[in-house]
Amino acid sequence: MRRLTTALLAVVVLTLTGMSPNRSTQAVAQEENTVAATRVIASGPAFPVFDATLYLDKPDLEQLHGLPKLRTHGRLWPRGADDSEPDRTRIVAALSRIPRNDLFFMDIEHWPVNGDPADVQDTIRKYNLVTRWIREARPDLTFGYYGIPPVRDYWRAIKPRDSRQYQAWAAENDALQPMIRDVDVIYPSLYTFYDDPEGWVKYAEVNIREARKYGKPVYPFLWPQYHDSHKELKYHFIDGDFWRIQLETCLKHADGVVIWGGWTDPEGNRLKWDPTIPWWRATLATMAENGERLVNPNAEVR
């Protein structure tokens, strides 16, 4: 089994020396593009486990357990504003919270990624604008878009590969390839819709396989609660055994994993950090069993 470590992603930093002070702006831009193009996302067997959780009173999981933070941007549109088009000024301003040379994810979920081909092409145009603006403003950053591609569709994804439904879903994923040409990472969403570990594993394996077609590192998002689309189970925590299955599936097929969550419980309350909850204990156990011991056995678990 691959070693599970939480090593930060490697980023190649190129120092340009011996430059003429009269070099053109175009030449500088070309060199910056070359730096971005030669960025190395990961090497060797390292399997990063990223913390993108939102729990109140959460300790520093990177310091305590080696889970590097995965950040995202600030608000991209004012409340109630027209969000049908990206706003360059706000996109660039939202990046100010991202440290230099960091890995992060963009979270834009409301533009259609399937359906009417004209709408999908317009979505691709908008994502490509955002990507270009990020590259121009912050060529030091490494990023991808949360949740796409692949298109999130549980039932079509688990159909037989020769079925009409599966092939239509795969074609929708292929159509999105132009929007991820210039990103660094694919972040498929593998949230839990049903209390069905076997079905989830099939869904996850198929989505990771689709994500691999783009030739980028694949870091799935996992959420230790049931998705809010399930009327009875929404926001309830997944049991520890099921969570371990999810982590181990990603360890087997993906390049890393992102843990998200902490927003709300079934009653709508913000969640506080609980180090005794089964999903977190299962996380620590899985990490310890699959590589270097990331949890200091002499440290108090907080």
Automatic annotation (TrEMBL):
Alphabetized GO MF terms: hyalurononglucosaminidase activity
Keyword presence, Zinc: no
InterPro entries: Aldolase_TIM, GH, Hyaluronidase
A Pfam family matched in the record: Glyco_hydro_56
Alphabetic keyword roster: Disulfide bond, Signal
Membrane in keyword set: no
GO biological process terms held by the UniProt record: carbohydrate metabolic process
Secretion signal span: 1-29
Protein family (similarity comment): Belongs to the glycosyl hydrolase 56 family.
Record-given protein name: Hyaluronidase
Source species of the chain: Mucisphaera calidilacus
